[in-house]
Amino acid sequence: MKTRAAVAFEAKKPLEIVELDLEGPRAGEVLVEIKATGICHTDAYTLDGLDSEGLFPSVLGHEGAGVVVEVGPGVTSVKPGDHVIPLYTPECRQCKSCLSRKTNLCTAIRATQGRGLMPDGTSRFSYKGQTIFHYMGCSTFSNFTVLPEIAVAKIRSDAPFETACYVGCGVTTGVGAVVNTAQVEPGANCIVFGLGGIGLNVIQGLKMVGAGMIVGVDLNPDREEWGRRFGMTHFVNPKTVDGDLVAHLVQLTDGGADYTFDATGNTTVMRQALEACHRGWGESIIIGVAEAGKEIATRPFQLVTGRVWKGTAFGGARGRTDTPKVVDWYMDGKIEIDPMITHKMPLERINDAFDLMHRGESIRSVVVY
Ligand code: NAD
Ligand code: AHE
Ligand code: ZN
């Protein structure tokens, strides 16, 4: 079949809207009509050529929602008409990682996913006979996409696609970092670095679990109002701090935070987040994805004296099990999504979403097909 898609033909170039050829689902695969997709900073990072796994030409996008159109042989868990969210972190429930109960990082198809291919080692997308790579196992910047059955979460059919798509990455990542990875307890003092599409979801997760101080740190002064809107209690703009930012934050939180979160992807900020933790027990959670080649550093003494450095992918959520629950939280009013979606556009204007993000003018842009 044909599908309209925004293709990343080359790094650092705008996406091009073209009609691609899309092969139907093979065994264990499903064809999904994507109804809406968010644009996450990770898409921009790959498009900018900063992802060590980045492949071109490819169909980016990993924050979508849509409807199952057709299933391949052997598919039993979803059927045509089901509403689903594509999962860049699948859940096979059979691999060593899934069975360990210690991680959400299913390893069943990670190797082929990282090479832009379906689990059988081939792509379903092509353009004028040339292979186009999949991205993060999702490729939601295409109106239709093929996904492994283990990489779709069935969600309730009354959730609007235009907001539910954000659960496919940003919402689950931010809220999940709080409830799954850090397991923040009520009253805990927390600092969130970076108040964008992910960091604001960390903030609303912290509010949901009853955190004490919720300090937001961002270079963009407009983000103060956004943070307060979702539960931030204190705002710090590093540009206006006299002297050392870490010392300022340690003093503000009476000796350091119980939990800190990096949602910037900047390795200098990651170090500040670790060092702003309380001596003896503070935990710092890395969410941000850093550019290829970047490394983190700190004095080992920071860890010797009890600070803990952790990371989280997709907020530690088990895709097929947890994503439908996050949609329920949204539909039941436990968390908000609508106000964070600052811009909606047709696929033809998807490049505007990247410009808005780079200028710091959007929280989340959503393409509605
Ligand atoms: P975004 O562009 O919407 O937000 C980033 C925010 O960080 C902005 O408000 C920006 O002003 C702020 N910022 C940038 N540099 C800063 C600095 N030095 N100090 C303080 N604030 C600074 O991006 P997003 O979509 O929220 O994504 C944030 C990061 O999370 C990205 O690196 C993205 O790739 C990553 N991410 C990771 C996961 C995961 O599963 N681990 C999932 C989604 C996104
Ligand atoms: N490909 C990059 C790493 C990118 C990365 O860390 N991705 C996150 C999700 S970001 C969503 O917006 C993730 O889930 N990582 C776990 C995984 O298995 O990819 C690189 O550095 O090579
Ligand atoms: Zn993302």
Automatic annotation (TrEMBL):
Q: Which Pfam families match?
A: ADH_N, ADH_zinc_N
Q: What is the lineage of its organism?
A: Bacteria, Pseudomonadati, Pseudomonadota, Alphaproteobacteria, Caulobacterales
The GO cellular component terms are: cytosol
- The chain's coiled-coil residues are none
UniProt function note = Has high formaldehyde dehydrogenase activity in the presence of glutathione and catalyzes the oxidation of normal alcohols in a reaction that is not GSH-dependent. In addition, hemithiolacetals other than those formed from GSH, including omega-thiol fatty acids, also are substrates. Also acts as a S-nitroso-glutathione reductase by catalyzing the NADH-dependent reduction of S-nitrosoglutathione.
- What InterPro entries does this protein's entry cite? ADH-like_C (IPR013149), ADH-like_N (IPR013154), ADH_3 (IPR014183), ADH_Zn_CS (IPR002328), ER (IPR020843), GroES-like_sf (IPR011032), NAD(P)-bd_dom_sf (IPR036291)
Please state what class of enzyme this protein is: oxidoreductase
Keywords attached to this Swiss-Prot or TrEMBL record, sorted alphabetically, are:
Metal-binding, NAD, Oxidoreductase, Zinc
Enoyl reductase (ER) domain segment(s) = 13-367
Q: Which organism is it from?
A: Phenylobacterium hankyongense
Record-given protein name = S-(hydroxymethyl)glutathione dehydrogenase
For this protein, the Enzyme Commission number is: 1.1.1.284
Instruction: Please write the reaction equations for the catalytic activity of this protein.
Output: S-(hydroxymethyl)glutathione + NADP(+) = S-formylglutathione + NADPH + H(+); S-nitrosoglutathione + NADH + H(+) = S-(hydroxysulfenamide)glutathione + NAD(+); a primary alcohol + NAD(+) = an aldehyde + NADH + H(+); S-(hydroxymethyl)glutathione + NAD(+) = S-formylglutathione + NADH + H(+)
Note the SMART domains from the entry: PKS_ER (SM00829)
The Swiss-Prot or TrEMBL record describes its family as follows: Belongs to the zinc-containing alcohol dehydrogenase family. Class-III subfamily.
Q: Name the domain of life.
A: Bacteria
> Is NAD one of the keywords UniProt gives this record?
yes
Needed cofactors, names only, are: Zn(2+)
Q: Which Gene Ontology molecular function entries are recorded, alphabetically?
A: alcohol dehydrogenase (NAD+) activity; S-(hydroxymethyl)glutathione dehydrogenase (NAD+) activity; S-(hydroxymethyl)glutathione dehydrogenase (NADP+) activity; S-nitrosoglutathione reductase (NADH) activity; zinc ion binding
